[in-house]
Amino acid sequence: MMEPTALESSKESARDAALSAAPGWQWSERPPSLFRRFQFGSYGQTRQFLDRLAEQSDALGVQPQNINFGTTYVNVTISASGPNLSESECRLAAELGRLATA
Amino acid sequence: MMEPTALESSKESARDAALSAAPGWQWSERPPSLFRRFQFGSYGQTRQFLDRLAEQSDALGVQPQNINFGTTYVNVTISASGPNLSESECRLAAELGRLATA
């Protein structure tokens, strides 16, 4: 079996670091991104989550690549603004995960 | 050429009514929907539009089927909650069009 190149192993560790910081999110490459679907019981809860998402986003200075929502769901994609997801980008994902399960 | 059935012509008039009430939107069927992409110069303008969209949505009691946004764009889909788009659904589309060009 061929040894992973230095680049491959650094990519893997970046992915593993992001996923351990933000459990419940899905990872994708090109660009490195975290994706998660949040489901809610009512439009009111969805709107509350969106408001708090905006607050966290402002506080961390991180703007999700895309937010896609309907009355009872919010799909969030956070993409790396650099070569890998930054600490703040991972923290936003982690905070949103906590918000949704709070 | 075959005459359109009563159903077909009522569908066409519903589509024409919606598009004349909400210029700049695209029409699609199943379900009858209006779609439009709004482009903005900054994340701040995007957020302002989203806030006002939420106000209009509350005021008219109409919740868009889907809102999909990034830092400088907002894609809005308003789908008929009944057999055809209601007056309020068309009004929300018209209001959003005015907001974006104001």
Automatic annotation (TrEMBL), chains A, B:
Catalytic activity: (4aS,6R)-4a-hydroxy-L-erythro-5,6,7,8-tetrahydrobiopterin = (6R)-L-erythro-6,7-dihydrobiopterin + H2O
Enzyme class: lyase
UniProt entry keywords in alphabetical sequence: Lyase
SUPFAM superfamilies assigned to the protein according to its UniProt record, in alphabetical order: PCD-like (SSF55248)
Recorded GO MF terms: 4-alpha-hydroxytetrahydrobiopterin dehydratase activity
EC number: 4.2.1.96
Keyword Amino-acid biosynthesis: no
Region entry Disordered, spans: 1-23
Protein name: 4a-hydroxytetrahydrobiopterin dehydratase
Natural source organism: Serpentinimonas raichei
Classification of source organism: Bacteria, Pseudomonadati, Pseudomonadota, Betaproteobacteria, Burkholderiales
